[in-house]
Amino acid sequence: MSALDHRTRLLLEAPIVPTLLRLAFPNVLVMVAQAAVGLIETYFVGKLGTDALAGMALVFPVVMLMQMTSAGAMGGGIASSIARALGARRRDSADALVVHAIAIAIGFGVVFMLALLLGGRWLFTLMGGSGASLEAALLYSNVVFAGAVLVWIFNSLAAVLRGTGNMAVPANVTVVGVVLLVPLSPLLIFGWGPIPGLGIAGGAVALLVYYLGGSIALWLYLRSDRSLLKPSWAHARFQWPLFRDILRVGLVGAVSTVATNLSIGIATALTSHFGPGAIAGYGTASRLEYLLVPLVFGLGAPLLAMIGTCIGAGQRERALRAAWTGAAIAFVLAGSVGLAAALFPRQWLMLFGSDPAMLDAGSQYLRAVGPFYGFFGVGLVLYFASQGAGRLLWPVLGNIARLVVAALGGWLALRWGGELVDVFIAQGVALVVYGVVIASAIAGGAWFGRVGWPRTTAGLLRRIQPS
Questions:
Q1: What parts of the sequence cross the membrane (predicted)?
Q2: CA angle 221, 223, 226 (to 5 degrees)
Q3: CA angle at residue 156 from 153 to 158, to 5 degrees?
């Protein structure tokens, strides 16, 4: 049995709050930078007109589905498996998990590529796309998903490093990539000198260049002497138990991710009843919710590593204390962003366009949903915490509950003659349901047995003690 690395010891023994904040800072930086990638694209694509912006709004939930599945769901499974292996001092298994993670990434990347290249037109038409906005969506989608494997490999390698408690290297790689992307994206969209403008497709090409460069950088680090893990294709031998350890967390997490993005997709379809301007407004405004995902993930990734390592080492009480600490921080973080957006919606929306219909629809969304973003932050950070614990049933049920409330509420609003704001109110109520369901289940002991609320402190302590 190998000795504990200093990062592993930090996760097991250091004070929770300062440790989480110190590890979260570079990770929040990397996630903000990664979110900036999408915002940069949206800003420049908005210069091409409302149809281009609406087309991008149609594709964006699907791109985020891939991002959240690869980085959050399957990436969480990868990070959780590696953290638990290191916590249990199984270094050889942790090394082998890297190669298994890359194999999974390639497989899922191919699935996404084929699904969107073959079924993109059907999907975007179903979501309400038509005419010029549909053609813009297809042009952007076909380029992005042709390189889906690059997105999956990048996010999987970053998850490998986060599973070891190393948040700095993925942060550095991402920030450098974004700095290079800022001039590259407009260059390829609008052209300059001998370089022809590719329009909306140029943003997609720039995005793939970013993921290619980042994947190469992360792999070179893993092969260097500075890396805790020492993966090797030469000595790789695929083992089903290692695939299973990643997939049992990642696949269940993927269900939750699909439910999140399906909520956005259904809301986009419901919004389409009010025209392309409403689609553009909702798509632009809801990017703020998507921006919260990487912000909370910045906190959730070190929380996942800490909880996974503590669970692997049998420290259940510390794992729970870390979870509630993270939930409190996430509520304040996401809630503050939501309240600011509800008070000043146009300041956000006018970064991307000035179409009156877009501004009106986006403002309605932010005023109706923004005040409830704190509950979204709680649910999301506890989802990452549950990945570390390897227990994802209730986070998935919470996300499904959100989907049902948002979809059914929005549909009923339209059926009963409601306005666009009524569709958005249903989205806000759904976020409250999402956060409350997950938090209540974990408080009731979902990580360590069936849900039920102990009546005494002694009962709670008995529940969290290792069996």
A1: 20-40, 52-75, 96-118, 138-161, 173-192, 198-222, 246-270, 290-311, 323-344, 364-385, 392-412, 424-448
A2: 60
A3: 110
Q: Which two tokens stand for residue 236?
A: 């790789």
Distance CA 392, CA 151 (A): 24
CB 124 within 8 A of CB 140: no
Lowest mean pLDDT among 25-34, 91-100, 231-240, 378-387: 25-34
Tokens of 48: 């091409």
- Is residue 31 very low, low, confident or very high in pLDDT (cuts 50, 70, 90)? low
pLDDT above 50: residue 61: yes
pLDDT tens for each residue of 133-148: 889 889 999 999 999 9
C-alpha to C-alpha distances, 51 to 135, 205, 348, nearest whole angstrom: 9, 20, 19
Q: In the chain, where are the structural domains located? A: 6-464
Task: Please check whether residue 334 is in contact with residue 374, taking contact to mean a CB–CB distance below 8 angstroms.
Answer: yes
CA–CA separation, 317 vs 298, rounded Å? Answer: 23
Q: Which two tokens stand for residue 421?
A: 């704001």
Q: Which residue has the tokens 């059914």?
A: 408
441: its two tokens: 């289940």
Cα dihedral 34, 37, 42, 47 in deg (nearest 10): 160
User: Residue 29's closest CA among 358, 302, 273?
Assistant: 302
Residue 466: which pLDDT band, with cuts at 50, 70 and 90? very low
Cα separation, 83 vs 89, in Å, equals: 10
Distance CA 11, CA 9 (A): 5
Burial (CB < 10 A; 0-12, 13-18, 19+), residue 17, is middle
Collapsing DSSP to helix, strand or coil, 88 comes out as coil
129: three-class secondary structure by DSSP: coil
Beta strands, E only, 239-337: none
- Comparing C-alpha atoms, which of 371, 382, 375, 377 is closest to residue 342? 371
Measured distance CA(331)–CA(329) in Å, rounded? 6
Which tokens hold the place of 309? 């390592």
> What is the model's pTM?
0.70
CB atoms inside a 10 Å sphere around CB 450: 7
What average pLDDT is seen over the chain? 83
Closest CA to 393 of 328, 448, 327: 448
Helix extents (H) in 223-355: 240-271, 276-312, 316-343, 345-349
For residues 409 and 426, is the Cβ–Cβ distance under 8 A? yes
Q: Report residue 362 as tokens.
A: 């986006």
Whether the CB-CB separation of 284 and 144 falls below 8 Å is answered with no
| Strand partners for 192 | 195
pLDDT at 154 exceeding the cut of 70: yes
C-alpha torsion sign, points 329, 392, 424, 34: positive
